[in-house]
Design goal:
Elements lengths: L1 H17 L6 H11 L7 H12 L6 H11 L26 H14 L2 H15 L1 E5 L2 E4 L1 H8 L5 H9 L7 H33 L1 H8 L14 H28 L2 E4 L1 H8 L11 E3 L6 E7 L5 H13 L6 E7 L3 E3 L10 H11 L11 H11 L8 E6 L11 H10 L2 E6 L13 H5 L3 E4 L3 H11 L3
Parallel strand pairs: 5-6, 5-8, 8-9, 9-10
Antiparallel strand pairs: 1-2, 3-4, 6-7
């Protein structure tokens, strides 16, 4: 029994790694020790113990819970034997008619009892979620259940029952509507969890885990991110900036002394017979450069550019000055839109509405944008400047402005081009990466993990 539980724990932690969570060997050992300190019959205590050992970010909680439920399910087999009576609770075997299920669901949504709703979800999955996918083979589908129950269509009758004659359109209706939406969402998640559990029993948790969870937000490619993915990434900007700043502070503390002062060390060793018992170092002179961000905000890479702009400004304390410039087919400074303490969404909206980013036809023109930047802002790049260019370098077969870019790179302290496209696509179609890669270091930055690694690399020491 103990061996089987340990095997399941190891498989669960390995699934977390495959989903993108970082789980070290020390954390595996901590999780194993934690199992000896709790009541293993208490499933929620086991969940909390594992979470305390391996979870590091709140955004990873959904992935953790989904995989935990696959490896440590609350029930096994066919748990359709549920007690109850006709007063809005599931009864043994349950009704066979979808309309009867809808009536029961309506009563449960009004009551809000999560335990009864979860048991009902198991019942309706057993009754409505099974389908033949091949001769002699069955599978389970959440969409079959939710399509037949259509819980969203119960909103009107649920509102009427909750309000009980109260005036419509006021705060009471707003609260009731939000409560109903949350309960419906919770029920949908219960149905999906029950379907995953049954599939895991049929096919194995390892196989189902590969498709059960969405990629973590920080692993989603910027160019393929949905609106919800980008919203989650924006929420992670400032926590990410804090993590990077904390690591930088620790790095500075560990390296607070400068290079070895060989002359002073040798001179001091004369007092100890030539043995350098004490070393002397030159004073450490931390360098805080200026940062200039020049980013393509055309539709194809807008999400990447917006996220990187926000991260740059979240890290502005690490630089003496931060200036931001955006372009589509011409360039304009957008620094004024990003003020300390300001709302990021408002800043992006103002930039899109007020900045002069279109000159001719609104299609990306890197050459004209680089020329305009160099001509209109000649003092932007200097010997203390770290220059970041953000974009996919897809130039619609227009002039590249390569010579002007070369002068900007030579004038700067550091210069990097962050490209959100996979490196395998560079140079294909209308990509001008071949013209730029010889002039400036081009780095593949497709997701937030790669961006974090890059920012740590360029932060001042």
């Amino acid at each position: 029994m103990a061996s089987g539980l340990l095997d399941r724990e190891i498989a669960f932690l390995d699934a977390l790694r495959q989903a993108g969570l970082t789980v070290s060997l020390a954390e595996v050992l901590d999780s194993t020790r934690a199992m000896g300190a709790i009541d293993l019959l208490d499933r929620e205590a086991l969940r909390a113990a594992f979470a305390a050992c391996v979870l590091k970010r709140p955004a990873h909680r959904t992935t953790f819970d989904t995989l935990f439920d696959l490896w440590f399910p609350a029930v096994t087999g066919d748990p359709t034997q549920v007690e109850g009576d006709a007063d809005g609770e599931p009864s043994e075997g349950g009704p066979a008619d979808p309309e009867a299920y809808r009536d029961l669901l309506r009563a449960l949504l009004l009551d809000g009892d999560e335990d009864l709703m979860r048991r009902f979800a198991r019942q309706v999955v057993q009754g409505l979620g099974r389908a033949d996918t091949a001769p002699g083979r069955q599978s389970w589908f959440s969409y079959r259940v939710l399509r037949q129950l259509s819980p969203e269509t119960l909103m009107a009758s649920l509102l009427e029952a909750m309000l009980q004659g109260q005036d419509r359109g006021g705060l009471a209706e707003k609260v009731a509507r939000q409560t109903i939406q949350e309960r419906i969402k919770a029920f949908q998640e219960m149905v999906e969890a029950e379907v995953r559990r049954r599939l895991a029993e049929d096919r194995g948790a390892e196989q189902i885990s590969k498709t059960a969870v969405q990629p973590l937000a920080e692993q989603v490619d910027f160019l393929r991110a949905s609106r919800n993915d980008m919203a989650e990434l924006r929420r992670q900007v400032f926590p990410l900036a804090r993590r990077l700043a904390t690591r930088l502070t620790a790095r500075r503390r560990l390296g607070k002394t400068g290079k070895l002062d060989f002359r002073r060390t040798v001179r001091a060793s004369l007092a100890t017979g030539g043995v350098p018992l004490v070393t002397h170092h030159k004073p450490h002179k931390p360098h805080k450069p200026e940062l200039v961000v020049l980013c393509d905000v055309s539709g194809s890479v807008a999400g990447f550019a917006h996220f990187t702009l926000m991260l740059s400004y979240a890290l502005r304390e690490q630089f003496t000055k931060v200036r931001a410039f955006a372009f589509i087919d011409t360039c304009d400074e957008v620094t004024e839109f990003f003020t300390p303490g300001g709302d990021v969404a408002d800043a992006l909206a103002r930039m899109n509405a007020e900045a002069k980013l279109v000159w001719f036809d609104g299609h990306s023109d890197y050459g004209h944008s680089i020329e305009t930047f160099a001509e209109d802002y000649p003092d932007a790049v200097g010997p203390r400047t770290s220059l970041l260019i953000l974009g996919d370098a897809r130039n619609n077969d227009r002039a590249t402005g390569a010579q002007t870019l070369k002068r900007l790179v030579q004038r700067s302290r550091h210069a990097y081009w962050l490209n959100p496209e996979p490196q395998a696509y560079w140079g294909s179609g209308d990509s001008a990466t071949a013209a730029y890669a010889d002039l400036i270091e081009m780095v593949e930055v497709r997701n937030a993990v790669q961006l974090e690694d890059f920012v740590q690399r360029i932060l001042p020491q």
